[in-house]
Every structure is written in structure tokens, then in C-alpha cells.
Amino acid sequence: RPWGITLSGGQKQRIALARALLKRPRILILDDAFSSVDVETEEAILVNFKGIMQDLTLLLISQRISAVRNLDFTVVLDEGRIAEKGTHAELLHLDGIYAGLFERQKIAQEELEYLEGTS
């Protein structure tokens, strides 16, 4: 801890991401890179990614639908095998694993927002 500074998990993740982007890679693999940030911060990071991702292939591994819903293509794994693949809209239309996760995470986020609004 230089100079007595302690960074949060989310701050450490953002610094690591910035360092990776400074190298201007052609391919970037992020494995659960947003697990320590809230959904709003995650969305802000991904929106800003859009501007720099034109020459970048991003392989994003995440359990959060919010992290992958705006990507060009998503692959859903179940027990190590490809269960579904497609765009966000296509995967919702399949009404399978992805759609179920989307609904559960959407409900959980709405409940969290409700609880935060009542406290």
C-alpha cells in the first residue's frame, strides 16, 4: 500500500482495464471483469468501450446479462457446453437459459432499486 492508499475492488478492476487498453490490443479477454462494480458503473464502462472497440475484438466472460446484452454476439454455456448463441434479442426470443437469467437478474435489480429508494 504505497502512501497508505487503499483501492476498492472496483477501482482495482478499472485500473487493470485501463492498463490493458493502453496497450491497444487487437483482442481483449475480460473474465468477470465487472464483478466488483455496480451495474450502473458497468454500463458506463461498456458505453465508453463502444468508441474504442472498433478495431478490438472483445471476449467478455460474465454472469451478468447487463454486461453482455449490448454486444454483437453472445454464447451461453451450460455445464461447459454451448447451450445457446445469438444476439440479445435472439436469445430472449429462444426463451431458454439466457432469457431465464435475464428475467431473474432484472427482477433482482428492480428489487434492489426499490429497497434503495425506500431507505
From TrEMBL:
Residues 5-34 form the ABC transporter domain. Gene3D superfamilies: P-loop containing nucleotide triphosphate hydrolases. Pfam families: ABC_tran (PF00005). Coiled coil: none annotated. GO terms for molecular function: ABC-type oligopeptide transporter activity; ATP binding; ATP hydrolysis activity. This is ABC transporter domain-containing protein. The lineage of its organism: unclassified sequences, metagenomes, ecological metagenomes.
